Amino acid sequence: MNAPVPPAGNPAFPARTAPRCATLGALDRQVARCGACPRLVAWREEAAAAPRPAFRDEEYWARPVPGFGPPDAALAVVGLAPAAHGGNRTGRMFTGDDSGDVLFAALHAAGLASRPGSAHRDDGTVLHGVRLTAPVHCAPPQNRPTPAERDTCRPWLAAELALLPGLRAVVVLGGFGWQALLPVLAGAGWQIPRPRPAFGHGAHHVLTRADGGDALHLLGCYHPSRRNVFTGRLTPAMLRDVLARAARISGAGRGASGPAPCPE
């Protein structure tokens, strides 16, 4: 007999609950219930109680933000965590802030999103063959989750990727997401080279499986944060190039005809 799942506010809740979810819909519902990290729970609720003036008439989501995208996604985009007045407000990953505006414009240009912007979880935006997610599902203070919060949240990411059977490529936005993702991929059976692949914009590594399953393409991209975009460290063109490359490799996107051949 399976042991009972601890309450949603228990730190063991993600580890015990995530592997039991048989569909992305079930996983998303459980993610939104989670209260495993007290500091993050306090911060997401504090942000909702003190909205920015532009959002003072809106009701904040103020819960963990599930991933967004279809179950047949061949491409995943992994960020850092929701923004306090972005995803924490709208209830959709990468929606409602400057980073999301840049990302959705690039997704649309690559044929991966139905529109070049996303304002709210009910705005009708559709993703084509791509799933947006993060290693931490609650907005953290100063956009900096602790290692313990990252590790507590890890089972959600592991379960989410396991529920994408057609996954062929992952674009990781930033070094935090890169370091958080590698143990998840290793646990799922992909072989991580030693020394571990280093994060960098434009990095591209092909991970194989010991069981002979499909390879996974791991691509790095600077995070489309306001600072990175403002300073020119990441331009919209740079982001579009990485996403377009990932779409070609994975076969994701509107009108896609399947994954491109594995590069030599």
TrEMBL record:
Domain of life: Bacteria
UniProt-listed PANTHER family: TYPE-5 URACIL-DNA GLYCOSYLASE
Gene Ontology terms describing biological process: base-excision repair
Domain Uracil-DNA glycosylase-like: 66-243
Molecular function via GO: 4 iron, 4 sulfur cluster binding; DNA-deoxyinosine glycosylase activity; metal ion binding; uracil DNA N-glycosylase activity
Keyword list, A-Z: 4Fe-4S, DNA damage, DNA repair, Hydrolase, Iron, Iron-sulfur, Metal-binding
Protein's name in the database: Type-5 uracil-DNA glycosylase
Family listed: Belongs to the uracil-DNA glycosylase (UDG) superfamily. Type 5 (UDGb) family.
InterPro entries: UDG_Type-4/5, UdgB-like, Uracil-DNA_glycosylase-like, Uracil-DNA_glycosylase-like_sf
